[in-house]
Each structure stands twice: as structure tokens, then as C-alpha cells.
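Troubleshooting log. The previous structure file for this entry was overwritten by mistake, so regenerating from the original sequence record. Sequence copied from the archived sheet and checked twice against the printout by T.R.
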Amino acid sequence: MICDDISINRSYVYAEARPCKIQTCKYNCAFWFCDIAGAADTGGKRRVQLEKTEVVIESGKVNNVGGDMAGAAVPDSSTTTTTVPTEPEKPVIIPMLVNKENVMSADFVPVNIVEIGKSVKGTPTIKLNATVLEAYKVMYADIKEADVTVPSIISGYRSYAKQKQLYDKKVAQYGPGQKVTAAPGPSEHQYSACIDISTDGTCQNNFGELDIGKWIAQNSYKYGFVVRYPVDKKELTGINFEPWHIRYVGVEHATYMYEHSLCLEEYVVYLRETYPDAVDEQSPDDFPAPRWAGDLGE
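Regenerated output below.
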């Protein structure tokens, strides 16, 4: 038998161009391949794909049957054939769509939510899904290195009850037709994957015109975020332009949406039509944070 001493050493290509490690054994076999084409260019994070490969040892060489693998010297000149099992390809995961037609139930409580603490600028008691916070911390670190105003998180997760309280207050203030605060149910904040950011502590209508607003619009996709309610998509989203409101969908989804100028409503339709076997997102944790977010610390 060969490859009985396989050392699994896999990693991904992230928003920045980085080498992709592949699985190797003591014979220098290399028959685990990463599907990383274009990842460095798009900022996308590609799933590792495992393919079934026969490895034949003959005359002191390892040869790949059905692949492009260079030969490597082995201590045994006998001929042996082994087959690497195929790992089932993971299905495409469709991001959770929350709007007037797709509402959150009153008893929905997200898992894995944490306080932002002092890891980023904002009110420490604001809560987010932990994966979303890790992704934001990566982006936040780069924002601090850019020549832009560093924003604060002013809102994250809100329970159904909290959203209803805010909604009822705005209805009493402006009437039932108010567009300032979403009703409980259609609000993304209950899902714990969206963030409101600001430079003055309010939802700034001119946020998109500020240096940080422009930076977010042009770069947030690299970290898995999208501007959830774009300026030209009101007829589809039902929400006015909110440049301060960003939603985490993972790097791959965010990159595609950015490159094709799609809002989430359009993108979900595209995914359902293109990938009939796709499954629905169950948690923001379905989309790992970009790069080594967990290594950033507090």
C-alpha cells in the first residue's frame, strides 16, 4: 500500500493571493487538487474539491492515471494501484433572503451570537453572529490601514421583540406609512448577519458619499459583505437606498453579486434557477469568514 502516511495539509485561497497547499504523502504524491481557478483574481474563496485518482507505482515511479502529476521516486519498484475515494461535492448554499415576502418568525432566535466587545469600534454590547463578526474584523483591520474614516457599528442583531418596539415607536412618530424602520419579521437584523455602520452614530443618508461609504461600496465584497439595499434596486428590495447597511453572505456570493450588480433578491432567483439541488442557508456560519480572521484576536 502507498500513501499510508498521508499528511493532510489543506488550505484555501482567500481575498489575497496566497499559495494553496495540497495533500501530500511521504512519497511526494500530490493527488488532492484544489479548485482555485480565478480565486486570486476575484477574491473568491473556492471549496476544496477532491477527485478520484488512480495512482500506479511502477519501476520506482508514481504515475497519476487521469491527472497531471509529476512522477516521484519511491522505495518499492513493485506495481501497486490504489484509488483515492471521492468526497461528495458539497451543494451550493443559497443565502437567507429576508424581506416582506420572506419573513422571520417571531420565535426565531439565531445561534452563535456574541457581543462585539472592544474588538471593533462601536457599542460593545451590540451582538452579531460570531462568523459575521470575524469577517468584519478582517475588513475593519484593512479599513484602519486605508486613508478613510473608521466607522462604528451602530446596530447588529435585534430580537423580534426589539424590532417591534422600534417599529411601533416610528409608527407613532411618523404614521403607519413610515419607511424609517422595518416591521418585525421582514427585518434582516433578527437574522444576525447584517450590520449598520456610521461615522456619527446615526443612519447617514449621505454615507455613500463619504470616503468610508465609497470604500465599503467598492471593497466590502472581498470580505463577504454586500450593500444590501443598493441605490437602483428599490423596486426589487422594497427598501430605499441604505449605504450604511451591509449584509454578510460569504466571499464567493458577495463577489458574484458585486461583479454582476445584483441585489440579493435577484441573486437568490439566479441560484435557484441555476442550481436546482442547492440548499438554503441555515446560519451565517455556513459561510466561513475570509482569510485567518480568527487569528486577529481582540
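The helical segments are 39-42, 130-145, 160-174, 211-219, 234-237, 251-259, 264-274. Archived copy saved in two places this time.
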